[in-house]
C-alpha cells in the first residue's frame, strides 16, 4: 500500500495549522469578550439600578407589593428621601406587615411593617391598625417628621446631619440625641444609621445616588463610572471612629476605607488600579502610599492608595482607568494584615496631601455612586 505523498502531507499540515490559528483567535476573542462583560458586571453590581418608581425627591427601586406610592407619601410627610424611608421599612420588618418584635421590658412587642410599639402607635397611628401596611407606612412618615422637628435645633442648617440625627432619634430616642448634642456614642445606634444610609443608596436608589444623610461631597461627581481600586477585593473597614488597641488615638479616627483580597493574609495581595483617569502627585513611603489627583474634567478629587507592597509609577505620570498602580501589601507604622487603605480628598486639596489635614471625604458613598464599590 502506497503512503500519502509529501505534497498531500504538506497540505494537511497547512490545513491543521490554519485551523489551529483560527481556533486560537476565536478563543482569544471569546476571552476578551467575557472579560469585558465581567468588568461591566463588576462595575454595575455595586448597586441595584432600575427605573421602578419615581417621585419629586428621588427615584426609588425595590419597594414590594405596589407600596411605592405609600412610601413616597410617607417620605413627603417626613421631608426625607424616599429611598431612606424604604430602607427603614426593610430594616425594621423585612417588608413583613405581620411581624412581631421581641418582648420588651413592659411586656409589649413592636408590631407590623414599621415596628411601632403600642405606646408610640397610640400617638402616631391615628386610630388605625399597626398591621395594616397603609396605616403603618403613613404613621412612620408622621413619626419621622416629629422626630426631625425635635432634633432640628441640634442639626442647624446641615441637611445631612439632620437626617442622621433623625435616624438616631428613631433608634435611641430624641432624649439621647439631645443629651449628647449629636449622634449618641452607642454602637447599635451608629450601626443602625450606617445600615439605613447604605440600604438607601445600595438597594433602593435607582441610580446609586447617596441620599441626604450620607453625602460627603455636595458637588457634581463628574460623568462616567469608576473601577474598583482593588479588583476582587472585599470591604473590611469603613470611614469614621473605631476601637483598635495598641495604636495612637488618632489612628482610631479612620479617614478612609479598607479593601482586602480574601486569603492574602500577610503576603502580597492583589493588583491595585486607578479607579479613574488620574495623575500621580507624590508618595508617602512610610505608609506605602501613592498620592494622586483626577486627571480630567472637574471635580478633580484627590486619592491615596496606601499600605502597598510595591508600586511602579512615577510622579507626574498619567494613568487611565484600570491602569496598574501597584501591589496590595501591609507596609506601615503598625503591624497589619495585607489590605488597601483608600482615601479620597476634596477637590480643593493640594496636589500632595496627607490624612488628618481636613481634606478627607468618606469614599464609600462616592465609590457606590460611581459604580466602583467592591462586591
From TrEMBL:
Pfam families: Peptidase_M23, SLT. CDD domains: LT-like (cd00254), M23_peptidase (cd12797). Keywords: Plasmid. The keyword Transmembrane helix does not apply. Residues 253-347 form the M23ase beta-sheet core domain. Transmembrane segments: none annotated. InterPro entries: Dup_hybrid_motif (IPR011055), Lysozyme-like_dom_sf (IPR023346), M23ase_b-sheet_dom (IPR016047), Transglycosylase_SLT_dom_1 (IPR008258). Residues 70-181 form the Transglycosylase SLT domain. The keyword Cell membrane does not apply. This is Transglycosylase SLT domain-containing protein. It comes from Kocuria flava.
